[in-house]
Request: fold
Amino acid sequence: MLRGSNLLSLGNYNQAVILDLIRRKPGTSRADLQRRSGLASQTISNIARRLIDAEMIRESEPGDAVRGRPSIPLVVNGGGGFAVGVHIDPAHLTILLLDIAGEVRHRLHLRTPQATNPGEMTALIAVSIGRLVREAGIDRDRLLGVGIAVPGPLDVRTGVVLDPPQLPKWRDVRLRADLHDATGLPVLLDKDVTASATAELRKSADSDFLFLYLGSGVGASVVTQGQVLRGASNNIGEIGDILVDPTAEDLHWSGRRGGLAAACVPEALVIQAVQAGLMVLPDLTDYLATDDAFTTLTELAAGGDAKASFILDRAARRVAVGIGVLVNFLDVPRVVLGGPTWNRLSAAFLPVLEDAVRRELVVSREAFSVVASTVGELIAAQGAADLVIDHFLAPHASVLVID
Amino acid sequence: MLRGSNLLSLGNYNQAVILDLIRRKPGTSRADLQRRSGLASQTISNIARRLIDAEMIRESEPGDAVRGRPSIPLVVNGGGGFAVGVHIDPAHLTILLLDIAGEVRHRLHLRTPQATNPGEMTALIAVSIGRLVREAGIDRDRLLGVGIAVPGPLDVRTGVVLDPPQLPKWRDVRLRADLHDATGLPVLLDKDVTASATAELRKSADSDFLFLYLGSGVGASVVTQGQVLRGASNNIGEIGDILVDPTAEDLHWSGRRGGLAAACVPEALVIQAVQAGLMVLPDLTDYLATDDAFTTLTELAAGGDAKASFILDRAARRVAVGIGVLVNFLDVPRVVLGGPTWNRLSAAFLPVLEDAVRRELVVSREAFSVVASTVGELIAAQGAADLVIDHFLAPHASVLVID
Reply:
């Protein structure tokens, strides 16, 4: 059994405040910390000494001092602690190791097993975490815990996956408790869109944006004034039913006709490709076959196929209508896109989206932009790990971890 | 010229904190305040004495003490200060006087003059404020300022109304500066939906809800964890273009076919009534005639007319689809409805909305509810006055007032 987090018992609140200030502004000096925290100089020195001894921070090379003695920059010591981030998408299972300086140290990417039942999935994740830690060669005692990002709806407080439409065999699965039992590690469960927005917020300097998550499903989250909104039941972001094209073709599909999910999720795009004669219908209950067919569609478009290009261009314009709804409602200056299918869609989407969204906006905005995530396809897993690190290292720990 | 606010220079931050605590929890005792503020007992006593001397708070009747000396409840003294709230709707002009204890002391309700130009409107508002203050018989020196709620889009920071589709003659109107020049009072300008959500938050105990504003236009705002979201450019809430019925009839109208505005604003409902043969088409550029025709439609429905009832029932079901979009996206547990047309729509809407919205929800919620505002039709004007009181009395004053 792995053990976690005890080494990092931070002693007191001030220590957590100082570590958080260094995390948020790497290279800060003791004098900076004193100014920003309001703590006494001697207190800062003592805390810095303890954090250096615990290998949580280290001194970096000083720059040239303008006058007098150069101040020594303090940075988080990545090797001081780690979190595992897991992302369960119906087609993709991502497991990565993030250090407390925000670097991905190692990662595993598996196709999500077919017709998964929750017990098998828990066992697979537990085994994979062991493998990840072994391969990365880190000290297990420095593992803070595991964050899992899953499709909603879920009960974050009890750590239960309720009944995600994308995981039909999953009903009221106590994933957090089960994975805690299987690994002995603290475990946190959160929604894929919330984890993704957290990762984007950590990586970018941006404090106000809408995050559009594109995976086997479509979702959104909102960062406002540097805070990730999560919704009253932590289930923010169900946007798949938003009507984006009243004239949309009938996909003979479970999702809402003319809705945002029907416009852009792999299953719906594959049906459109089949209707256009581009491919034969795969078994749509097989998420891997659907995902492969979706890849084929995007490759056809990249290769210049007119029908495939038409489908993805139309998808981008429909997504723009949906984004317009959200931007008009919440008045956000920037939209960031990411998630498991984003890399395959970006070539078709990025040239179209910004202008198409602008045409939907009621309030004209000079500064409005639509951009790709700076984090990449692993974003939900990385965000799940970020949430664990925040839990243990931020001054106000959440109550959402089992440990 | 009226003078404002100088009498209320609060001396220091602690004094503002204490006054805010009493405003938020009327009847709180000095011992409570000490516990909640962390200030020393003697500091609390001194501040309470100064606030009583300034007539901003007063001592209320003590209840029975469980043991020992009964504690004396402190409450805000309504007569200590006032704010004027103005709401400019294309059909209705509301001007009211709110005291710092949250009571409406006096109000004027005018039909908004036809084909208003901004200069005439400013003059009318200035004259009306003078009349309001005279009729209420309050001391002008206790007037904090004027808050104006208007349809968006607007530039809250500069106090400029940009180009509201509902006020076609208004383009880049410096309403805040003009009204300040005309009255000599501090003036704050904000969006109708933001003001409404602020009033609802102040009046109800609720800290998480979506506010749906129904007036000549339709808008929404969000309160999350006791904070009113305003959007990056303070223009939150443009929801009129959300598609709610792909099969909707063509209204030959400026709004989006099948959109939320086409489903529920007076102009669109009057066109539907005309199409159903219920009335002859009024001059739709005349907001008062349109508003009167809308009133006729709602009276017909209340009187049992089947066609009128059908139109309003259909409107409720379409509005439910729009609410569903917003609730699914932001995961809010409660929806509150209000605004200038709400009283005329509530009889048809309330019996239908909650169940109809529930059918739209992706995440099932036991506690979900759709309710009428506790504030009533004057909500936007009252919220505009609340924003002024908050500006002057809350510890963190906004920078959005000209004074």
